[in-house]
């Protein structure tokens, strides 16, 4: 009989992202049926468990969040894959979310809704927050716009007080211009901002639109109003980490490189369901595109709804939205294709019909141009 490999998973189960990581690992294990898995209780940032020094297993998948965990693992002579952004051990393979891609999705989401004012609320103690901030600010600045920033203090920093930190965040939120789009580094931070808006009777999303990351569905639905959130491909991240570890345990040499996994998309809920465009004709055009993008419309279809010449319309649209009306239609259709690929088992021919393409081949060409991979490959990955 084939000998089972003994694998330990040092991943907390207290948040949606980590649980989805574990789900991806489990889905890979089912394909190999040769792992014996140990999943101990592990709190995020906890000290190394006492058993790890003498553990005689074959491999580990770990969220290496602290220097103490890093030092304990470096003493082991077995394969390890890291699934944390902390990057405490640079000489092992690392699988993590693509934070620049997450920030790009967030910025595009807000631009599609016509926002001209932007803000980012982050936690500088975490690399993933810093990388999301850097990418988001860069995109805002490229459009000659300002990004208002808030940096939360780490809970373990000297003199930290939850009440003082809450006052700092409240003062920042109240100082922002309206309407503004706030990108929060993760869902819990977005929930805190929503609470402040509710307490101070700030209209969400008309005055402040708020977007989180992780799509913790329970948390997002408990928010008032429900929170829009970027959906990271945590399941795929876990699965790829498990595959890498399996290859390492089978003797393959794996380069200690970063494997960054692109997000799936955005779950749009009420916290960003708004058009912040003062131009009535362009706002009308955006609503028409949003409602009809997958019905085979084109720019001529929009001009039947908007009392403007084509040249004036396209110029004003480009200035306000940042790209052409044709690109907006394409973006909406590609996003719908992405959603159907991930959430359904519909064949490509039916997805083409549902997204306004007469031919599957034309849909595939459009999707590949936007996403750099064909639809079938995108579905397999996600």
TrEMBL record:
SUPFAM superfamilies: Homeodomain-like, Periplasmic binding protein-like I. PANTHER family: LACI-RELATED TRANSCRIPTIONAL REPRESSOR, XYLOSE OPERON REGULATORY PROTEIN. Pfam families: HTH_18, PBP1_XylR, Peripla_BP_3. The gene is xylR_3. It comes from the Bacteria. This is Xylose operon regulatory protein. Keywords: DNA-binding, Transcription, Transcription regulation. GO terms for molecular function: DNA-binding transcription factor activity; transcription cis-regulatory region binding. Gene3D superfamilies: 3.40.50.2300, Homeodomain-like. Residues 283-381 form the HTH araC/xylS-type domain. SMART domains: HTH_ARAC. It comes from Roseimaritima multifibrata.
């Amino acid at each position: 009989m084939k000998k089972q490999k003994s694998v330990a998973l040092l991943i907390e189960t207290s948040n949606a992202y980590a649980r989805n990581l574990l789900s991806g690992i489990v889905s890979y294990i089912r394909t190999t049926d040769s792992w014996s898995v140990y999943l101990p209780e592990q709190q995020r940032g906890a000290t190394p468990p006492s058993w790890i020094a003498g553990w005689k297993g074959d491999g580990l998948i770990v969220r290496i969040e602290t220097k103490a965990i890093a030092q304990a693992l470096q003493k082991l002579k077995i394969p390890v894959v890291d699934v944390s952004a902390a990057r405490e051990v640079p000489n092992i393979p690392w699988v993590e979310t693509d934070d620049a891609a997450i920030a790009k999705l967030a910025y595009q989401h807000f631009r599609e809704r016509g926002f001209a004012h932007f803000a980012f609320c982050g936690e500088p103690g975490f690399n993933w927050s810093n990388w999301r901030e850097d990418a988001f600010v860069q995109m805002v600045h490229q459009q000659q716009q300002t990004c208002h920033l808030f940096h939360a203090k780490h809970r373990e920093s000297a003199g930290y007080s939850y009440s003082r930190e809450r006052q700092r965040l409240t003062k920042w939120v109240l100082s922002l211009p309206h309407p503004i789009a706030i990108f929060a580094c993760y869902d819990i931070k977005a929930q805190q901002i929503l609470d402040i808006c509710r307490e101070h009777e700030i209209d969400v999303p008309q005055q402040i639109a708020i977007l989180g990351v992780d799509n913790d569905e329970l948390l997002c639905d408990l928010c008032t109003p429900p929170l829009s959130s970027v959906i990271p491909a945590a399941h795929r991240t876990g699965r790829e980490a498990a595959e890498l570890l399996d290859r390492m345990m089978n003797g393959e040499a794996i380069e200690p490189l970063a494997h960054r996994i692109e997000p799936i998309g955005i779950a749009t809920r009420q916290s960003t369901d708004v058009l912040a465009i003062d131009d009535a004709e362009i706002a009308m055009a955006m609503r028409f595109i949003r409602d009809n993008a997958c019905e085979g419309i084109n720019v001529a279809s929009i001009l039947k709804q908007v009392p403007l010449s084509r040249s004036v319309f396209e110029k004003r649209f480009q200035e306000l939205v940042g790209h052409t009306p044709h690109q907006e239609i394409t973006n909406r259709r590609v996003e719908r294709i992405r959603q159907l690929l991930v959430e359904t088992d519909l064949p490509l021919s039916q997805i083409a019909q549902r997204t306004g393409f007469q031919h599957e081949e034309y849909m595939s060409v459009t999707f590949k141009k936007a996403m750099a991979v064909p639809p079938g490959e995108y579905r397999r990955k996600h």
